[in-house]
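Maltose-6'-phosphate glucosidase malH
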Amino acid sequence: MKKFSIVVAGGGSTFTPGIVLMLLDNLDRFPIRQIKFYDNNEERQKQVADACEILLKEKAPEINFVATTDPETAFTDVDFVMAHIRVGLYAMREKDEKIPLKYGVVGQETCGPGGIAYGMRSIGGVLEILDYMEKYSPDAWMLNYSNPAAIVAEATRKLRPNSKIINICDMPVGIEERMARAVGLNSRKDMVVRYYGLNHFGWWTDIRDKEGNDLMPKIKEHVAQYGYSLQNEIEESQHLDESWMHTFAKAREVYAVDPDTLPNTYLKYYFYPQDEVAHSNPDYTRANEVMAGREKHVFGECNAIAARGNTEGTTLEIDEHASYIVDLARAIAYNTHERMLLIVPNNGAIVNFDETAMVEVPCIVGSNGPEPLTQGKIPQFQKGLMEQQVSVEKLVVEAWVEGSYQKLWQALTLSRIVPNARVAKQLLDDLIEANQEFWPELN
Ligand code: NAD
Ligand code: G6P
Ligand code: MN
């Protein structure tokens, strides 16, 4: 059986150890001969790499391990690039969240002004990695989950239309896991879903079990009462912090706006922006929570493993939910035709929507990539929201390509979360100042 070579781009990510453990746990389904880490921050990556090298020696010494900041070493001889980079690190995420809050506007990693600012940083970083892959391993596939996925996906569609990149998000995976538990199923894989939207901006329209029984009524009953909160929390979930519990509970109010569908959690920022601002602490945002929580834990554990020389007693855990990445790699490698939600060019999958939009819909994935499944026509409410949001995303990419101040101002003005053009301009000027090191020059 063929064994695969993969490179994790963003080797210094807080998610890297959990993904390596997940890959090791899945070796029988997806055999690996080589794992490489690539990052542009040598010091950050080294801490994670030193620990993962020890881990690999213990659990799978036959796997060749390389950690590097040299693109040629990283991207030569690989089958898959698994990319989770964060251009600007948490220091910039913190600014994306805090600058809007100064104006009473939602400050969030991927939504509104924060997402737009992050998009303007991320596009160049993701394109660079894609170009390295195509230069050194032209047959490889890039599985990208670097955020903001909606903007990054639009940029790669527009600028690298023939590249083998698939953009994927784990939020539907996480929500479906909760839906499954809510109706007493063991796993989201016992469900077949219909869904449409943009990334972090979509709706389920149909959910059935494997026998074809409609699960929507029972799930809706749960969501109408509890949102996506569960009586018995999923212990191995990535989304356990207090702020996530608030998000899952808030889905109740998001659902109420359109009880025909079940919503993605991220819609709360667009439907109830004032509530989110009121609930935020402008001096301590999610970035601070993540730095004090996940980052501290992961790097603390990695450094302890390196100092000890073994992984005994480590609290680093398998990121089991990340096994959707293995499902995707397998679908391509073995032509499994697995059905998965992916971010792909619309091309008529949503019949009454811009065919050039990057949409999130169920796809059948095989060795030639994803084939989107038609979701039919969407209602006026969702269409109106999506037209506005996709225009924001497209304007950001145009602004990045053209270096256009005007277009970025328009993007911010169009965002549902920003109250008016004047605030949009103030935000833009602050964000330009904060992102000097990362954004193209705007004129
Ligand atoms: P992190 O800051 O811990 O890790 C990101 C790493 O990327 C850092 O080590 C950084 O040095 C590196 N990096 C930045 N720019 C780079 C470049 N140009 N080339 C190579 N490496 C670069 O961040 P994290 O919280 O672990 O998240 C990583 C990414 O994964 C983020 O983009 C996050 O939004 C994304 N994410 C996406 C999903 C999803 O659903 N799609 C889920 C979870 C996380
Ligand atoms: C979900 C989203 C990701 C996002 C993450 C943020 O999983 O799908 O796109 O990056 O949440 O989580 P964090 O713990 O970093 O706030
Ligand atoms: Mn996501």
